[in-house]
Amino acid sequence: MAPAVAVAAVLADPSLLRCAVQPLVDLERAVVAGWEVLARVDERLGTGPAELFAAAQDPDALGALHVLALREARRLRPDVPPDTFLSVNVDPRALADAEVLEELEEWGDLGGVVVEVLEGLWPDDPRPVLEGLDAVRSAGGTVALDDVGAGWSGLSRLLEVRPSVVKLDRGVVARLGTDPAAEATVRAVGELAAALDAWVCLEGVEQPEQLLTARRLHVPLVQGFLLGRPAPAWPVADLARVRDLGAPARRPSGLGALLLDPAPGQLDLDPGGRPRAVVAAQPDGTPWCHPVTTLSPDTDPRAALARAMARPAPDRFAPLVVTAGDGRVVGVVNVEVLATAVATAGC
Question: How much is the pTM?
Answer without folding.
Answer: 0.73
